[in-house]
Design a protein that fits this description.
By secondary structure, this protein is mostly helical. 73% of the residues lie in helices and 0% in strands. The chain has four helices and no strands. Helix 1 (2-16) packs across helix 3 (43-85).
Length: 127
């Protein structure tokens, strides 16, 4: 089931992000607008586009979230591999996404201090 969803989500994501999808969506909106006078701009006419776009938006949220999750995991694994492969890199940086917010804030402060030290070595005192 997961593999089927992954393949479906990837295919749908690529299709939805294509120029043809944008052109198609624009065409649907134009067709809907052109038919307004034919349907006397009725409530049903408006409901059709509102319902359609709501359903598509609802489905796209899950599609986008799935794609972002996969991309984030892949990027994280690539970064972990680079950290592991670079001599002198701190292997403790692998799996930072598992740290608490407080631990991440502490690391950020440390890197800010290191950045300042690199820019102005004489002005920054060691922590």
């Amino acid at each position: 089931m997961n593999e089927l969803f992954r393949k479906l989500a990837r295919t749908a994501s690529e299709a939805a992000g294509s120029p043809w999808a944008f052109i198609g969506a624009t065409g649907v909106i134009l067709l809907w607008a052109i038919t307004g006078p034919l349907f006397h701009f009725s409530d049903t006419w408006q409901l059709v586009i509102n319902t359609s776009t709501t359903i598509l938006t609802f489905l796209m949220v899950f599609l986008i979230q799935n794609t972002q999750n996969r991309e984030a995991k892949a990027s994280q694994l690539k970064l972990d591999e680079l950290i592991r492969a670079v001599q002198g890199a701190r292997n403790t940086m692998v799996n930072l996404e598992d740290l608490s917010d407080a631990e991440l804030a502490r690391l950020r402060q440390e890197f800010q201090r290191l950045g300042l030290a690199a820019e102005n070595p004489a002005e920054v005192k060691p922590a």
